[in-house]
Amino acid sequence: MQPIQETQVLIVGGGIGGLTLAALCRKLNISCLVLERSKKVTPAGAGISLAPNALRVLDQLGIYDDIVRHGQTLDKIIIHRNRTKWRTLDWSRVTSPFGYPVYSIERHHFHHLLYRAADGDNTVLLDCSVVDLVDDAAERHVHVKLANGAQINADVVVGADGIRSATRRILARQAGLDGKNTIRFTGRVHMSGYTAPMENLGPKNLGVGNWLFYDDCTLTTWPCIDNRQWFIGVKQVERQGQEDMNRSVWANATPALVNEAYGTRFHPFAETGQFKDIVDRSERVIASNVFEEVDFPTMSKGRVALLGDAAHSMTSFFGQGACQAIEDATELANSLHQHFHKSSLPPSQAEQQPPSSNLIPLLQTYSKTRTHRAKAVAAFSRDYASVHTGTLLPYGLGSVVRKMVYAYLPEWGWTWGLKWLYGYQPTVCEVGC
């Protein structure tokens, strides 16, 4: 029989949200372990967008300078309708009111920064799949059972295991529900990639993104370091079979697959004007179905909490999925610090209290606060996707709305409209506000 490990916080899932929480726990002197089902840490995804609402706490963690060195600010956005240029947006104006710009960075490199901040070699346990958890209020710990037969005991368990969260399914099953995640396929497929430096681009192209609206799809390219391009193509697809609808990431995506869908499209940064020039420079490509949450669950139950896509998956049209997971981790870290380090009772009395006496109310407050925020951001992301794809209104009016927003909305309107999103910047005060 394997020895039973114990920790204060057990995080299920070694993605961005889970590693952010682990790094914050390390700063707060809270012991934690991270369970990751993958057998090794390998490059995944293409790029990632980091907005001011996430960058402040990343600055607290001490990795902002690395983001600056290895990322690229979004300074301008050129908007086209087919081959017709609508306008150029000055996106650098968000830096002054919000304190930080928007950065694009290779996803794998950002994951590595978080892994290092979390002391991943000593914190992350690979090849660990959770099969059950038992949260008995009479017991001092939550017991987590793994597929390999091991058991880990923790004061708190956090499900940060993504859109098809095993933690969430276990909680649903124990509540007498069907144990399935309440996510819906949107009917859209994303094809994305991260390129080598584009040799035909120069200094004037650094920090310049592109939004291109075609009749049957959209293309977005975000600027990355050294004029690398992170691209995302979005298409509505015909109804797929149930097996296809249930998959998130497609297996064996290739540049040829992306070129089949988008290769002949116009792009102003392509050397010949065709998007295939950019795709052919790809170092990595990914194809994935897009899902969104349809029934937000509670983000805590007993001594178990959820964060990120495990609780509130959303469309990626405004690049807020990772940022919301980082926000979740920050708010949850504050609750955990209050539980482990700020008990109002003297030590002699605290020892006599049930281990969850103040923890559960703190997690319930976390759940209430974060659910409200996540619902608002998910609704914004969904509506923005409809505007972006020209489908907000029927009878062709969606295209009219799209043109009004992207061609005519003043730049100050964009900044004003993002105050509620970018201006909310949670921090962990014990780390240093």
Describe the structure.
Strand 1, helix 1 and strand 2 form a beta-alpha-beta unit. The protein has 17 helices and 18 strands. It has about 425 residues and is an alpha/beta fold. Helix 1 runs parallel beside helix 5. The mean pLDDT is about 90. The longest helix is centred in the last third of the chain and has 30 residues.
Topology:
Elements: E1 5-12, H1 16-27, E2 32-35, E3 47-50, H2 52-60, H3 64-70, E4 72-73, E5 76-81, E6 84-90, H4 95-98, E7 103-106, H5 107-117, H6 120-123, E8 124-125, E9 130-134, E10 142-146, E11 151-159, H7 166-174, E12 183-195, E13 208-213, E14 217-224, E15 228-236, H8 242-245, H9 255-262, H10 276-279, E16 282-293, E17 300-301, E18 304-306, H11 309-312, H12 321-341, H13 347-350, H14 359-388, H15 397-408, H16 411-417, H17 419-422
Parallel strand pairs: 1-2, 1-11, 2-8, 5-13, 11-18
Antiparallel strand pairs: 3-7, 4-7, 5-6, 9-10, 10-11, 12-15, 12-16, 13-14, 14-15, 17-18
Helix pairs in contact: 1-5, 1-12, 2-12, 12-14
